[in-house]
Please model this.
Amino acid sequence: MIMSKNELQERYAAFIENATEEEQNVMEEMIRGWEGKREGQYYSFVGSWLQTNRNWKDDETYEVTIPLHKGLENPLSMVHGGVTATLLDSTMGGLANEITPEGKGSVTLEMKINYIKPGKGETLRCESKVISKSKSMIVTEGKVYNDDNQVIAFGSGTFYIINLK
Amino acid sequence: MIMSKNELQERYAAFIENATEEEQNVMEEMIRGWEGKREGQYYSFVGSWLQTNRNWKDDETYEVTIPLHKGLENPLSMVHGGVTATLLDSTMGGLANEITPEGKGSVTLEMKINYIKPGKGETLRCESKVISKSKSMIVTEGKVYNDDNQVIAFGSGTFYIINLK
Amino acid sequence: MIMSKNELQERYAAFIENATEEEQNVMEEMIRGWEGKREGQYYSFVGSWLQTNRNWKDDETYEVTIPLHKGLENPLSMVHGGVTATLLDSTMGGLANEITPEGKGSVTLEMKINYIKPGKGETLRCESKVISKSKSMIVTEGKVYNDDNQVIAFGSGTFYIINLK
Amino acid sequence: MIMSKNELQERYAAFIENATEEEQNVMEEMIRGWEGKREGQYYSFVGSWLQTNRNWKDDETYEVTIPLHKGLENPLSMVHGGVTATLLDSTMGGLANEITPEGKGSVTLEMKINYIKPGKGETLRCESKVISKSKSMIVTEGKVYNDDNQVIAFGSGTFYIINLK
Model:
């Protein structure tokens, strides 16, 4: 029931042919994300949508950076609040997973976000730290920075530790 | 500096040629979203990513429905928490915009989400209502339902009313 | 090491002797609360501080009403945000306890509050409803109303179900 | 219409006469708080209820410490969630007021609290820092510590800056 490759080829070719510059920009970022996922850079298609670049900044700080572009904006030409939320969830949840014991995973129980400044510029970077960790629960905080190292959003989240099978 | 149409054509054609079924599924949903945006169905590329279908359910309830697919999942094969967050922000923020006076807009000040059940199935539907409204601020709540009308997430948000120019 | 009854008698008598009208008002409410606790009206001294009046408004709505007075105000002469928070926690947590199985209790995992209007008047009334309930977790919402039935605060909370021994 | 001093004297004397050790303990703490308020130690009766001891720990950290006792417990003999919430609001809101320009004040717009460990021991100490500050809004975070310097609660809050007259 999935669209055939032939139809995908036609639909994408036709869409590119008539693409505005903005659409070209969005499509360029999307194909980079998809290619990156195929090469194993991202854990999920949501990760490839944001092109999440993950690493430990130091022993306590887990960091995810994403490039900004037209495809991540709201109608007011700032980063969409959902993008910032997804970045925070990915960073705080990524940190939770990193510190979860083998054979266990973690799911987001709740998350709160304060939007402080409009997200603009080349990249957003989210830094997350553990606030507390017990056998069943991890609480984290996260801060999202723009290119000038200004905090544009602040969040906290609770993650519940589950058995993976 | 944007990728040329020729290069986009080549990169997309090559990616489709080697696509797995999962990738085909994700690409099908993405092209539908992009085509829909070109036709004016979505206000932003984030809207086209989620294929948001917006309407007033009744006088008090603003509703956004999205189709679910592989492209919106986390590595545990449930809807990614960021998708649910984006849906809640889009619905509550959409409601805030709908009731904001002409010439004004609204931006998300803060949002909180409780994740209650894993998001699975064909669609997610978010219903949002106003809790309070003043000259400068709107507070809303939102509930996200699965196909069986079970609440899978609950959120609340504060929106700040701004002048659009 | 506790202050003797004699010393308590002296200290209270001296304090009352020099009491301002405001202090008299606060002391009157406090002794009512303490006497009520001794008679079994309140589950805790925090309950007696707020003089919480609990009942089911209907099958789905658990309600707690408190009288307002000088003792519950902040320096701006509105209800202190901590009072509203305590009322919300008592109501949502009270509801959680009411629906928790025999031999189990519930503890607050997290709570969020939106302050909408200054709390003023004779009483505050908090209504709470269950949003979701699983074996281990209850999510609730609560609204706080003033004498004119205006919502002055909105909250949501997550309660974790524990074994009582 | 306020209770006369004579009646207050009688009611308090009678209550003390029959007081349990627990009640004596609670009454001792309350009279200390009230006496302290009369001497100008606390800004409000809520402050005297908690016996808040305020100071700047360092240039960036505003700190409030309170003594714990029976009067601040819930029916499970831990610190009541409303006490922790009030402490967080007082500390974060106190910080917001400290950095608000002359002639302005601040009111809590929203607050979120994660309860991490049961509150027990001799004291609770809340440390708060500014996350962001604009002309109209201050965002803060706060951590509550027990005697062993373990984080027992984490919160964040948004404060709206208002003109005081």
Q: What stands out?
A: The first strand of chain B starts at residue 53 and ends at 58. Chain B has a mean pLDDT of 96. Chain B touches chain A through 59 residues (CB under 8 Å).
